[in-house]
Amino acid sequence: xxxxxxxxxxxxxxxxxxxxxxxxxxxxxxxxxxxxxxxxxxxxxxxxxxxxxxxxxxxxxxxxxxxxxxxxxxxxxxxxxxxxxxxxxxxxxxxxxxxxxxxxxxxxxxxxxxxxxxxxxxxxxxxxxxxxxxxxxxxxxxxxxxxxxxxxxxxxxxxxxxxxxxxxxxxxxxxxxxxxxxxxxxxxxxxxxxxxxxxxxxxxxxxxxxxxxxxxxxxxxxxxxxxxxxxxxxxxxxxxxxxxxxxxxxxxxxxxxxxxxxxxxxxxxxxxxxxxxxxxxxxxxxxxxxxxxxxxxxxxxxxxxxxxxxxxxxxxxxxxxxxxxxxxxxxxxxxxxxxxxxxxxxxxxxxxxxxxxxxxxxxxxxxxxxxxxxxxxxxxxxxxxxxxxxxxxxxxxxxxxxxxxxxxxxxxxxxxxxx
Length: 419
Ligand code: EPZ
Prior knowledge:
The strands form 6 sheets. Strands 22-23-1-24 form a 4-stranded mixed sheet. It has a 4-stranded mixed sheet with strand order 2-15-17-16, with helices on one face. A hairpin with a 2-residue loop joins strand 8 and strand 9. The protein is of the alpha/beta class. The chain contains 14 helices and 24 strands. The protein is elongated, with a radius of gyration of 21 Å. The chain folds into 2 domains: about 200 residues, UDP-n-acetylglucosamine1-carboxyvinyl-transferase, Chain; about 200 residues, UDP-n-acetylglucosamine1-carboxyvinyl-transferase, Chain (Alpha-beta prism). The site of ligand EPZ has 24 residues, from helix 1, helix 5, helix 6 and helix 12.
């Protein structure tokens, strides 16, 4: 991975208007889901991200023909050549685990290497495994390889998730859509990306009800057909752009965004002192007033405040006078932006799942390192507000979830270049 850097000149206000691209965390499961039908699907508003290209490489390795056509990706899954995902591909992107349910749903057989942990923690898949086993899957772990088989027809099951895992909910949906029985997922994840996946699958002829609630009911069907589907806007990228306006005291209009997916995030920006006005497919945000500290901010499964926005808000709280407390309830190790933000002069103490930010002091530019996707984005935001130049390395993490973040921000008045 070439170690490209972003060079950020701080102190410039963000202002203007920007379109929010399609959601990575919806595009990835939907791309996996195209395996379920032996025909062509066209996934529109599919973001140009390295994780999306990694998914297309996995699809191609399984025998699909993938090609980008403008803002869409066209996948022909008519003839699959294999049911195995290589270790190298699995290591490239741990969210490839969502291919397990899709490959089982189509081929009833799948071999893939255990997805490694990632920067956020061990990322276990026990809930995926137990859910698929309840569906009748036989899953053998052998030296880091998962060898899985699903009976010819899945006759349905009632599966209660110990916690509303997004990936496990998606994997069970993908494995259950083709079959004869009814599968009920209780305590299912309610994220909008689950609703988007169900929208695509139902467009392909699946029968899924309740996506977006805690109880998802899948009535098995004989087969699926291809479909054209438009991916929802990325609510985390939208929050990141809002964060750029907040940390620079600017104002911004976001286009092609769905405010109804972002209530908890919008209310956090309002608590921090921003004025936020959603209207139709736009959001206007203004941060002309000094930011307020937030006494206690807790991350939670949807519709609670999303863990993916936590590093973004941590960056903007460095500017808010007073003490803010963040409690990270989803991932074990998601304060990795903190030590890098301290290099910019932020006063942040992180211990276990609690971080305390003493905000209000101006940050000053320094060389910092992105450790994961959203921590990297948080460092870019902090660089926008710091005096002087900040360099952020390991930009490949940021490219996983943001389409050319530097040109997006430059178009809004920032000075960011890649080198
Ligand atoms: C999805 O990850 C997202 N990734 C993550 O976004 C997001 O942070 C996360 O959901 C929570 O919203 C994609 O959609 C590709 P989980 P996922 O299963 O599915 C534990 C980003 O920045 N757990 O809901 O892996 C797990 O360890 C990424 O875009 C188990 O214990 O999240 C975590 O603590 C980062 N056993 C919690 O549940 C399991 O079998 C939530 O994980 C599965 C999960």
